[in-house]
Amino acid sequence: MKKLLNEIRYFRSQPHNFKILVLTNLVYAFVLPVIDIFVAAYVMRSSNDPTKVVIYQLTIYTGIPLTFLLNGFLLARFNIRGLYSIGMMLSAVSMIIMMSLKELNLVGIGMAGLTMGMSFGFYWANRDFLALSITSDANRNYYYGLETFFYTIIAVAVPVTIGWFLESRGTEHAAVKSGYLTITVAVFIVTLLASIVCFRGNFKNPEQKKFIYFKFHPLWNRLLVLAALKGLAQGFLVTAPAMLIMLLVGKEGALGTAQSIGAILSAIIMYIVGRISKPEDRVKIFALGLSLFALGAIVNGALFNQTGVVIFILVLLIAKPLMDLAYFPIQFKVIDIVSKIENRSEFAYILNHEAGLYVGRFTGAFTFLLLAYMVSNEVALRYAIIIIAMLQLLSIVVAKQIIKQGNELGKTTETL
Question: Among 306, 192, 251, 216, which Cα is nearest to 38's?
Fold first, then answer.
């Protein structure tokens, strides 16, 4: 209890905007498992076609960079809190579009996907800038460890609750759709609450400078390579657990339970790692996360049954947060350095970073679709994850090079 009180006091000692941003993202975290897992499960249940799930994901990832660009122009006219809130609210709008479709054709899926992409675009563009502006390199491990701790705790309750709620509705299409509509209403309410919390912050817009560039410092170009490697898995990994569960098990209840098993352990690990780790530990954390992901992918591919899926999801619950906990501070440190060297707005790098992610996401999704159409859905789900996990191991080498060069340049920028 004494240690818990110390942690609460430590959080309270943080700046006001730090606490508000964490609390905003804490409320919105109740929506993220629904978006990441159960929308894909709905598409899979209604169409029984994994390629439609991946196409839905690809339209999401197409909408994100376009909205990042639009957000840059809108920041000159609108407060960042409003754009941030719009991003959260649009996730509910996208679900409403999806639920209103009488038939899941590619046009309807595309519309819902692009709307969700706009939601993510407004959300992540502004969230990334705010996280960059209110944190320093010294407390970014703590910030992301704290966020990941909350996200993972919520990932215990939300997936299993929603999964068994949907399964309790029965197997009739009308009953299942009614259940998804109820969840959509709940998502809308939660996004509204998150927006209210967001408006309690005193967040400032980025300084209005030019934010579209095509040539960057060599250090930033290396980070774009790292971003593309990160995007490879995002191309379909967000929805892969849902596709695997619905294909090999077939029920949302099992999907929710599989997502929740082990999440408490993961949350505790993430908080401790974020709280006690130092900036120099980031490559080790990153390497551990990537290695666990590769191990889980190999086990899933080798077994390709219910046991393999559960092991893969359990490993992913720890691997993904570890990768994110290390990746974002590395990204922000590089932005700190190159923005000073090139005298550019931080938002210019946040926008350009999304382009690097998109290249990776498109490549990852295209790899899955190519295997699905040329061979089979089963082969795609079984082997595409392994291919991408092996390629992602290259990120360890790239991250080491970035940190080494960043440390050398960082000494120079301190005198700028």
Answer: 251
